[in-house]
């Protein structure tokens, strides 16, 4: 797999040069992010809520019923910090401003018990697992009819979105790769976005703005394709026990990125794919909630101007089946 490793290291170097040339590095340390000053700030609840998609077809419905330089990264990962950042549901909207442009101020994570907090005893082993893996599987093939991606090693895992498209559509409001303080590991993780392939960050659609679309400390709904603020913070995922730190400190999407790039982890891959199925698989709860709302609102077409035809064709078939059989 020398070829894979050479390409991975080339991506790391190219990303570092791109950021330096564009001046996109955040010069302020993570702990300088200020919490909202208002006393009415509310913390996110841990109860997961179904995703909400707002689009042209729903709005018009008749009725509505929700451096990855390994040496530098190694050093950054093992340096404890007083605080990280966390996003809050509270928002402030200027008079006359659209809700979709409202930014959610980052709320600092609780600091360690002291400024000399001792990192996790197995930290070196955990960090080595993040930085020394080697790709062992080829990229997926895309079904041009359904728009689904097929992985040879796991034929039952058939997502219809690539990690690159998820990032470009702003699923995390630009905050996914922000400096992250892990309560369990007692360190701040930063710079791990540099592992991403260079072609994910640049292309015909333009270059991704690292500060705004990857490492922002503010959740910005305007970055999201649908202008929505949704999902829970990584800190809440960690508190709920959903993150296996020895594999991916940031959770499911980081696992998906590395799985796409060819990493395979026996046991962990099956766990993460099982979680995906329960949410958006054939009988997934989020999928059924969305289809049920479409039917309740009388929506019979999922096509939106600008969406990829293959991708929407698969959704249309699912909606047609739900209209006909309720499943």
Can you give me a brief rundown of this structure?
By secondary structure, this protein is mainly α.
Any low-confidence stretches, pLDDT <50, length ≥5?
26-102, 104-110
Largest sheet: 2 strands, antiparallel
Q: What percentage of residues falls in helices of 4 or more residues?
A: 25-40%
- Kindly report how far apart the N and C termini lie: 43 Å
The class by helix and strand makeup works out as mainly alpha
What does this 3D model show about the protein?
The protein has 327 residues and is mainly alpha-helical. The protein has one domain (2-276). It has helices at residues 2-22, 56-59, 70-77, 123-131, 163-168, 198-201, 210-213, 234-240, 252-260, 268-280, 285-296, 309-325; strands at residues 86-87, 106-107, 141-142, 149-150, 180-182, 187-189. The strands form 3 sheets. The chain has a two-stranded antiparallel sheet with strand order 1-2. It has a two-stranded antiparallel ribbon with strand order 3-4. A two-stranded antiparallel sheet has the order 5-6. A hairpin with a 4-residue loop joins strand 5 and strand 6. Residues 26-102 and 104-110 have low confidence and may be disordered. It comes from Apiospora aurea. This is Vegetatible incompatibility protein HET-E-1. Residues 86-95 have a biased composition (Basic residues). Residues 21-146 are annotated as: Disordered.
